Amino acid sequence: MELITAIRGRRTILDFKSEKVNKALLLKLFNNAAYAPNHHMKEPWKIKIYEDDARSVFGEKIVDSYIRLGLLKTSNEEKLMRARQSYDRFFTSIPHHVLFYIDKEDDGGYVDEENFAAVCAFIQNFQLLAWEKGIGTMWTAKKTLLDEVFIRDIGLLPEKHKLIAVVQVGYPNKVPKAKERTPVEGKIDWINTEEIR
Ligand SMILES: Cc1cc2nc3c(=O)[nH]c(=O)nc-3n(C[C@H](O)[C@H](O)[C@H](O)COP(=O)(O)O)c2cc1C
């Protein structure tokens, strides 16, 4: 697949087949994604992959966080139970939930920002490499990633770790239509005179 075809053709997938992606293939994609640029060769990406029975438990912890953060209202027990069931169906319908995080080095300072950026480059490499193999992804990031209780719930430490994204991975059931992009011309200032002084 040509690079431009992968870049323009990749879509965020919301509806996945239940079939798992072969572990060796996933590892190959991650190892190729690791050629992402990263300052001082820190290779800061750390990854947890939730599969099989771990998906429900992971999903529950995310929903607990949504409730804590007020993203999911709790006033009606019956409705809450149905919402939990619906989230559980969502989490168990997707074969792999891939959590990306980094070790904090300067607690939100510039080094952490650099490492965060490198992991984003890794994620996009991974998304494109996956797409080339017919594998879909959904990059998700919500306030939950900052929720200290959630961070502890998944066995990490808020003072030591920064969560970056959860990427859902699997073969697409349905590929959504492309969302067209705005021409970038309007977002560029070409600066090539002494006016910069
Ligand atoms: C940092 C980040 C966070 C995102 N969070 C979500 C999310 O929480 N839920 C979701 O459905 N998509 C999420 N997306 C995917 C975007 O919605 C998607 O890329 C955008 O709508 C464009 O669609 P496309 O990827 O199919 O081109 C996120 C993407 C990025 C880069």
From TrEMBL:
Gene3D superfamilies for this protein: NADH Oxidase (3.40.109.10)
Give every Nitroreductase domain span: 7-171
Membrane-spanning intervals of the chain: none
Q: Which Pfam families would you find in this protein's record?
A: Nitroreductase (PF00881)
Name the coiled-coil region(s).
none
- Which InterPro entries does the UniProt entry name for this protein? NAD(P)H_nitroreductase, Nitroreductase, Nitroreductase-like
- Name by which UniProt lists this protein: Nitroreductase family protein
